[in-house]
Amino acid sequence: MLTKSEEEIMYLLWDLNEPLTSSEIVARSVNKTWKKSYINLLINSLLKKEMIKVVGVKQMTKNYARTFLPTMTKDAYAVKQITDRPNYTQDDIPELFSELIEQINEERIIDKLAEMLEERRQVIKNG
C-alpha cells in the first residue's frame, strides 16, 4: 500500500500523463511544501514498490534529472488495493462487481460489460 504522500505523487503522474522529474513534481504539487530530500525519499520508495519507473533524463539547468512515469494505471492500482487485502479471494469478486454495477445508469456500459464477460468466458473455456 502507498502512503498518502506517495498516492498524491501517483495521482499527479496519472493526471498529467507525462514524464516528470522530481523538481517538476515539487513544482506541480500545489498546496504542498515538500522539500527536495522528502521528494527523493518518496520517489525512491515508489521505485522500490515498482509503482513508477525511470523513463529518461532531462536537462535541468546545469544538471540532468531522471524522469518518471507510473508502471500501472490508476484503475489497476484501485484493483490492487482490493486484491492485496488480507483474506481476499476470487470469491469476493461477484459482490465487488455488484457494488460497481449498482452505480451504472447507461445501457451502453452494461452492454460493454456483458461483452467483456463473454470474451473472458471464451478465454477460460479455450484454456
Q: Tags for this entry?
A:
alpha+beta; single chain; two-stranded antiparallel ribbon; 13% strand; 2 strands; 6 helices; 127 residues
Fold blueprint:
Layout: H1 4-16, H2 22-28, H3 36-48, E1 52-60, E2 63-70, H4 74-83, H5 93-101, H6 107-125
Would you kindly provide a written description of the structure presented here, covering whatever features stand out?
- The chain is α+β, with helices and mostly antiparallel strands.
- It has helices spanning 4-16, 22-28, 36-48, 74-83, 93-101, 107-125; strands at residues 52-60, 63-70.
- Strands 1-2 form a two-stranded antiparallel ribbon.
- The longest helix is centred in the last third of the chain and has 19 residues, at 107-125.
- It is elongated, with a radius of gyration of 19 Å.
- The two termini are 32 Å apart.
- The model has no long low-confidence stretch (mean pLDDT 93).
What can be said about this structure in brief?
The chain is an alpha+beta fold and 127 residues long. It has six helices and two strands; from the N terminus they run H-H-H-E-E-H-H-H. The chain has helices spanning 4-16, 22-28, 36-48, 74-83, 93-101, 107-125; strands spanning 52-60, 63-70.
Distance between the termini: 32 Å
The helix tally amounts to 6
Based on CA inertia axes, which overall geometry fits? elongated
Sheet having the most strands: 2 strands, antiparallel
Query: Percent of residues in helical segments?
Result: 55-70%
Tally of DSSP β-strands: 2
- Strands of the largest sheet, in order across it? 1-2
Q: Could you report the average pLDDT, rounded to the nearest whole number? A: 93
Global Rg:
19 Å
Query: Which structural class do you get from the secondary structure elements?
Result: alpha+beta
Please provide the ordered H/E string of secondary-structure elements.
HHHEEHHH
Low-pLDDT segments: none
Measured by DSSP, the beta-strand proportion falls in 5-15%
